[in-house]
Design brief:
Arc Repressor Mutant, subunit A, 7 helices, mainly alpha, elongated, 52% helix
Length: 165
């Protein structure tokens, strides 16, 4: 089960070794329950094969070694622009409730740079962020990008929410 999970995460990993997966997807793909999935994640982390950046239900992990890389992924030769900052951020700083929300943002928007969304989690209430993410998920057409739509919606939804009070 642990090796199957590692294989799924490896398949989902971007070129920088970051993988995003929703709990629902993993449970279905691995045909297991939440407890077994949690144990498998703990085993991979304790073996040093992954670092958990945000926990379930919106899992974000950093693979230490993945196919095509013989070195530790935390020190890539020429990192892509969007994730070059990851080497300088402590993995422990990703833990916590706010970072679960951050993982959800990254997962929905298909982004890999948590730093650019950290300020949004400080400024806006979680229910405002989740409402914006829900609207992004349901959008039929998007003119620029999911991220642009999300950033456009946040202040408007916050204003609507404060007007209702």
């Amino acid at each position: 089960m642990t090796d199957q999970l590692l294989q799924v995460l490896t398949e989902k990993a971007h070129s920088d070794g970051i993988a995003f997966a929703q709990e629902e997807f993993l449970l279905h793909r691995l045909n297991c329950d939440g407890e077994k999935l949690g144990l498998a994640l703990e085993a991979l982390e304790s073996r040093g094969e992954i670092a958990i950046l945000s926990s379930l239900p919106f899992l974000t992990v950093k693979l230490k070694i993945w196919p095509g890389r013989a070195v530790n992924s935390a020190n890539p030769g020429t990192p892509p622009y969007s994730s070059s900052h990851l080497r300088n951020i402590s993995e422990d700083s990703y833990r916590g409730r706010a970072d679960d929300l951050l993982g959800e943002i990254l997962s929905v928007l298909g982004e890999s740079d948590p730093q650019s969304f950290r300020k949004a989690t400080e400024i806006y209430a979680p229910h405002v962020i989740r409402l914006a993410l829900d609207r992004v998920r349901k959008a039929q057409t998007i003119q620029k990008s999911r991220t642009a739509l999300f950033r456009y919606l946040l202040p408007r939804i916050a204003k609507e929410a404060s007007a209702r009070r």
